């Protein structure tokens, strides 16, 4: 049986969920610039549900600090919420490679990035993310990234994971978003391309003994894989 969908809805859409409300009210500390970016995205973009959950971005900021991270990649930028959030957690000489194909979304993102003093940390690559990841590997950057967030076209999750594993340093973390997919992954009647691809990537990571893993019921589900 599919779990109640509301459990997996993002915090900004799940205000009818008292437990999630409590969690948000007692733990979310959203910097003003991120709040502004999120609220403007929600009033400007019909597809605002693509936004990462703010409590999830906050959790990633802690991970980045724990990892003493300098180099990160965002696969799927949308309006730049998590890219900006990660930049805030990186040191001044840190770098986020931001991968997306949407000019309209990233133009919006760039307006916010340039409003803050983190703009120099962001390197936007406006082309298919697989092309960007392959170019980083070809440029000799394998084994050098601390944190890679995968949140783009779900059909490519396994392709992104393979490249991200190559680019990651030992002890670095890959985080994959939407691994619960509103509960669809647990419903065998759901056989559409995206659900099937998400399940396949989840299974692939579960059996990958080269990483330590944890699947979190945060946002719409996040798989963490730490390179051994
Ligand atoms: C769920 S949104 C990302 C949300 C974002 N991580 C955030 O912080 O709010 C997915 C994004 O992936 C992008 N995308 C889809 N296919 C892509 C591809 N082949 N390469 C790069 N980006 C892609 C979309 O344009 C969209 O902006």
TrEMBL record:
<keyword id="KW-0808">Transferase</keyword>
<comment type="similarity">
    <text>Belongs to the class I-like SAM-binding methyltransferase superfamily. Cation-dependent O-methyltransferase family.</text>
</comment>
<keyword id="KW-0489">Methyltransferase</keyword>
<dbReference type="InterPro" id="IPR002935">
    <property type="entry name" value="SAM_O-MeTrfase"/>
</dbReference>
<keyword id="KW-0949">S-adenosyl-L-methionine</keyword>
<protein>
    <submittedName>
        <fullName>Probable caffeoyl-CoA O-methyltransferase 2-like</fullName>
    </submittedName>
</protein>
<dbReference type="Pfam" id="PF01596">
    <property type="entry name" value="Methyltransf_3"/>
</dbReference>
<dbReference type="InterPro" id="IPR050362">
    <property type="entry name" value="Cation-dep_OMT"/>
</dbReference>
<dbReference type="InterPro" id="IPR029063">
    <property type="entry name" value="SAM-dependent_MTases_sf"/>
</dbReference>
């Amino acid at each position: 049986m599919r779990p109640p969908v509301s459990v997996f809805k993002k915090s900004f859409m799940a205000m009818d969920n008292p437990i999630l409300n409590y969690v948000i009210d007692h733990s979310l500390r959203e910097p003003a610039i991120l709040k502004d970016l999120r609220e403007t995205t929600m009033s400007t973009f019909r597809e605002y549900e693509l936004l990462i959950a703010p409590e999830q971005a906050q959790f990633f900021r802690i991970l980045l600090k724990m990892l003493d991270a300098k180099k990160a990649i965002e696969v799927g930028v949308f309006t730049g919420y998590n890219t900006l959030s990660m930049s805030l957690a990186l040191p001044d000489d840190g770098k986020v490679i931001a991968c997306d194909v949407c000019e309209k979304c990233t133009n919006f993102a760039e307006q916010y990035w340039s409003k803050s003093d983190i703009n120099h940390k962001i390197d936007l690559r406006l082309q298919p993310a697989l092309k960007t990841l392959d170019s980083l590997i070809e440029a000799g950057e394998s084994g050098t990234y601390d944190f890679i967030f995968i949140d783009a076209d779900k059909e490519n999750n396994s392709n992104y994971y393979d490249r991200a594993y190559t680019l990651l340093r030992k002890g670095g973390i890959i985080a994959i978003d939407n691994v619960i997919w509103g509960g669809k992954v647990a419903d065998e009647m759901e056989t559409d391309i995206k659900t099937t691809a998400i399940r396949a990537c989840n299974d692939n990571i579960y059996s990958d003994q080269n990483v330590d893993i944890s699947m979190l019921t945060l946002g719409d589900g996040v798989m963490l894989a730490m390179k051994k």
